[in-house]
Amino acid sequence: MAEIEREAMEYDVVIVGAGPAGLSAAIRLKQLDADLEVVVLEKGSEVGAHILSGAVLDPSGLNALIPDWKEKGAPLNVEVKEDNFLMLGEAGHVRIPNFPMPPLMNNHGNYIVSMGNVCRWMAEQAEELGIEIFPGMACSELVYGENGEVKGVVAGEFGKNPDGTPGPSYEPGMELHGKYVFISEGVRGSLAKEVINKYDLAAGKDVQKYGVGMKEIWEIDPAKHKEGTVTHTMGWPLGSNAGGGSFIYHLDNNQVYVGFVVHLNYKNPHLFPYMEFQRFKHHPVVAQLLEGGKRVAYGARAITEGGYQSMPKLVAPGVALLGCSAGMVNVPRIKGNHNAMLSGKAAAEAAYDAIKAERSGDELTAYEADVRDGAIGKDLKMVRNVKPMWSKWGLTASLAFGGLDMWTNNLFGFSFFGTLSHGKNDAEATEEASKHKPIDYPKPDGVLSFDRLTNVSFAMTNHEESQPCHLQLGNADTPIAVNLPKFAEPAQRYCPAGVYEVVEKDGQPEFVINFQNCVHCKTCDIKDPSQNITWTTPQGGDGPNYPNM
Ligand SMILES: Cc1cc2nc3c(=O)[nH]c(=O)nc-3n(C[C@H](O)[C@H](O)[C@H](O)COP(=O)(O)OP(=O)(O)OC[C@H]3O[C@@H](n4cnc5c(N)ncnc54)[C@H](O)[C@@H]3O)c2cc1C
To answer: Would you say 267 and 527 are in contact if contact means Cβ atoms under 8 Å apart?
Structure first.
């Protein structure tokens, strides 16, 4: 194919992704200098369309960025009033009292929010400061400078044929160049992956770990709704099959967020995370809450779980990784939004200093130091052993030892365990199907539980069908030749949107990719045991259209 000619636009800072990290960076840059030229590119059809979080927001990030957020009308309306932690058995539950929990686990002072709406509000604040935000613009490629530095991105390429050649309405997009490029794509970003590999940023760090989080919004009977109540559960239905658990957050307007996270280092390829979520809702504690209500939205997204020891180096020439592109979730708290905001602020401050000193295209080492030695590093370091303990020793032991470890870290800045390693990555953790029994999942009843495709229609996801499939196979034969006999092709189950199927054609199994269903969770890129699936960005505006997730 002939070289594509593109127009280029010059900025001080180019920001990929309008999540809490990217928007915070943009806002901080303009707070520091109103004359800086800043652009934010977002692949969702609007800001917030692809944002999926729990979300109980620790406001520390927002306090640091926009201290008068209350006066400015930020949508943080529901303060946490009640915090419950339940251990579920199949029919019953035990409430774990709050007092043995280290203070960092306390949710009082936090807010139950729609992060989609928080991002929409942040985008308004950013635009008032003069920041250009372009939704519907997917950044599909990095642009490198003469010295090997990242100097920009390609965004807004539309209208390719399925084979990748330019179609009749092809638009080549633009190059957006910056003195610095911030990658704030969230978990498992495709450009972040390229940057990490190209500059070997994960060298000397532990592997990154992930979970898949699925979430529904329910409107429930007002008599059962308790605004400000936060409940987390562990135990049933996952038991010892996988790490993970649920969250149930009562926001306003009789709505409840019901979500379920499955750690992706599970061994049994027959495990079906989506069906675990569905059967969880039949537990008496959950069923009695949801009965009489209706599910109004569904979505899914991977979540980073590697924490402190897995964060790659954050900077390379011309580029910085922000928020969950580097993995800044505090796993036991299930919180990363505050760190995403703080990282955006820190990256902006480092870039501002560098630009004032007439630097460009180099490493923002001050940003790296701020993250590791400042509030983010402190937040993540205290809990660094909880996830590896859970993976190695199971739920009960990790609750006891993880609790002890968080206390000693909290009180004395000390751990008896040093820093534990995560071991294998999540793809390698998958064992052969023959070593495990298939799991028999009850059929969804259509009232509390739903089949996957029905639920996906509540993600309002959409992809232009005539473009190339954005889920690329390294080797087209691997799913049937390797994954099916060895792992019972787990893509059929780990994908929470039913993208992957094995069907029979002329008596032979065939692997089908329904990329139109994709909700951009990135689980396939993480969990495929052969590491044969690469998630690339489809054209801008495609993907889910979440309401107030
Ligand atoms: C199920 C679940 C529950 C969670 N619960 C909580 C919670 O209760 N509290 C909490 O604090 N945290 C929670 N988290 C974690 C939190 O959501 C993340 O830490 C946070 O979203 C990270 O922010 P970010 O800005 O780095 O990325 P994101 O919020 O993921 O934003 C990234 C943005 O970049 C866009 N983008 C990505 N790639 C491109 C591209 N190539 N071109 C253009 N745009 C692109 C995306 O569309 C998206 O809008 C939860 C996560 C999950 C999955």
So the answer is: no
DSSP code per residue over 295-340: EEEEEEEEEE--GGGGPPP-EETTEEE-GGGT---BTTTTB-HHHH
Neighbours of 472 (CB within 10 A): 15
User: If you take atom 29 of ligand 1, which residue's CA is the nearest one?
Assistant: 19
Contact between 314 and 371 under an 8 Å Cβ cutoff? The reply is: yes
Structure tokens at 114: 């729609």
Residue to probe by mutation, ligand 1, list 334, 523, 534, 548, most atoms within 8 Å of CB: 334
Model pTM score: 0.97
CB atoms within 10 A of CB 148: 13
**Residue 486 CA to ligand 1 centre (angstroms):** 33
| Contacts by residues 478-487 (CB-CB < 8 Å, ≥ 24 positions apart) | 478/530, 478/532, 479/511, 479/532, 480/509, 480/510, 480/511, 482/530, 483/528, 483/529, 483/530, 483/532, 484/509, 484/511, 486/432, 486/433, 486/529, 487/269, 487/430, 487/432, 487/433, 487/529
Q: Please, are residues 304 and 3 in contact by the beta-carbon 8 Å criterion?
A: no
What separation in angstroms does the CA of 359 have from each of 109, 144, 318, 352, 356?
40, 17, 10, 10, 7
Q: Which residues pair with 315 in a beta bridge?
A: 320
Q: Are strands 229-235 and 82-88 parallel, antiparallel or unpaired?
A: parallel
Q: What is the whole-number distance in angstroms between the Cα of residue 42 and the centre of ligand 1?
A: 12
**If you take atom 13 of ligand 1, which residue's CA is the nearest one?**
335
Distance CA 291, CA 307 (A): 37
Q: Is residue 322 within 8 Å of residue 28, measured between CB atoms?
A: no
Name the residue with the closest Cα to ligand 1, atom 45: 17
Question: Ligand 1: which of 16, 43, 45, 53 to mutate, judged by most atoms within 8 Å of the beta carbon?
Answer: 53
Ligand 1 near 211 CB (within 6 A):
no
pLDDT digits (tens, 9 = 90+) for 218-252: 999 999 999 999 999 999 999 999 999 999 999 99
Q: Which residue has the higher pLDDT, 102 or 155?
A: 155
